User: Which sequence fits this backbone?
């Protein structure tokens, strides 16, 4: 079911393998594909990659990210002659909170004057450990272009990040070590193209989600999961939504009405809409609701589609949906009421595939 259209799948032929054996066979096949392919198999031959100078003012950096539709961007350090970090939507959230916690009214001077590098250092101090000690800056997480796709996917999953910079194994005359960014969506798109060639060999692809241990589920479904399924109402404070996104280290939360039916999904990257025309400077986060924040998002980018599926959808259908550029999760809903039953993210998919 997606935007009022219902897709039904014919039940698969009975399999002679038990579910545990099906999963084992499927994982073995997936590992074989990913182990024998490198990042060059998923990186496009030609693409645009934005990189920001670490000395760029924070305000200008966030405006560029908004205008270019970027949720994160690599940072170039001229002194070190390399990429040293990433600027993300999470940084924007933390910066806004720091400014609005100040006693004085929110002003633009801190965003106008402070370079990204200064903000990164200040963040380590401001958001330090429980004893007040500053957090030590960790080396930039990256992969090499010679790494196989299993190692790349595991690097993203284990570090709970959405993408990872790819460094060239051998330097070239350009002096730029960065090749591109690797994402789980890019790896999944490549994987789906391979599976389509041999889909009949993996019976698990035609199993329904209800029979597969994957995703995050509502307790009422009777299914267990490692994470707690979070949902919020349209009237919930935006700050509560941001708290959950940062604390749970998830990228999105389903937004529901009073009956628990899906209305939209608020993603961490949606916060970038507040960078347009300096909206963030004219609001107070404590007084903004999720509905207000979504209205700003709609004004900037228009209404968007919620990607959904049913518990009776097959694993193959979900994989193909998540391989679409820009889709990072599907919300599992009850067919007639659109009640939120679960959510399946790209991270869930690869944690299951490589488990």
Assistant:
């Amino acid at each position: 079911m997606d935007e009022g259209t219902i897709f039904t799948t014919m039940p698969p032929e009975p399999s002679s393998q038990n579910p545990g054996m099906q999963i084992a066979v499927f994982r073995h096949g997936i590992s074989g594909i990913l182990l024998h392919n490198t990042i060059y198999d998923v990186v496009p031959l030609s693409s645009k990659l934005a990189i920001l100078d670490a000395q760029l003012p924070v305000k200008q950096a966030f405006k560029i990210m908004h205008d270019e539709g970027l949720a994160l961007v690599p940072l170039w350090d001229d002194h070190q002659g390399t990429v040293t970090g990433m600027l993300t939507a999470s940084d924007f959230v933390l910066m806004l909170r720091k400014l609005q916690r100040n006693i004085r009214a929110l002003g633009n001077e801190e965003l106008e004057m402070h370079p990204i590098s200064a903000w990164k250092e200040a963040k380590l101090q401001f958001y330090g450990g429980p004893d007040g000690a500053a957090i030590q800056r960790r080396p930039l997480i990256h992969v090499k272009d010679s790494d196989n796709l299993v190692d790349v996917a595991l690097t993203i999953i284990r570090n709970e990040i959405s993408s990872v910079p790819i460094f060239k194994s051998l330097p070239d005359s350009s002096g730029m070590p960065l090749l591109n960014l690797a994402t789980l969506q890019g790896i999944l798109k490549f994987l789906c193209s391979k599976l389509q060639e041999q889909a009949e060999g993996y019976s698990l692809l035609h199993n329904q989600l209800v029979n597969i241990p994957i995703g995050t589920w509502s307790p009422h479904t009777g299914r267990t999961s490692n994470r707690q399924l979070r949902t919020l109402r349209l009237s919930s404070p935006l700050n509560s939504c941001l708290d959950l996104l940062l604390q749970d280290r998830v990228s999105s939360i389903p937004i529901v009405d009073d009956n628990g039916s899906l209305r939209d999904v608020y993603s961490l990257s949606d916060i970038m809409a507040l960078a347009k025309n300096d909206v963030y400077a004219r609001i107070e986060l404590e007084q903004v609701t999720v509905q207000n924040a979504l209205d700003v998002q709609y004004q900037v980018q228009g209404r968007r589609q919620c990607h959904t599926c049913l518990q009776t959808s097959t694993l193959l259908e979900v994989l193909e949906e998540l391989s679409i550029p820009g889709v990072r999760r599907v919300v599992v809903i009850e067919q007639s009421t659109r009640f939120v039953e679960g959510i399946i993210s790209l991270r869930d998919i690869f944690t299951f595939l490589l488990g």
Observations:
- The longest helix spans residues 19-35.
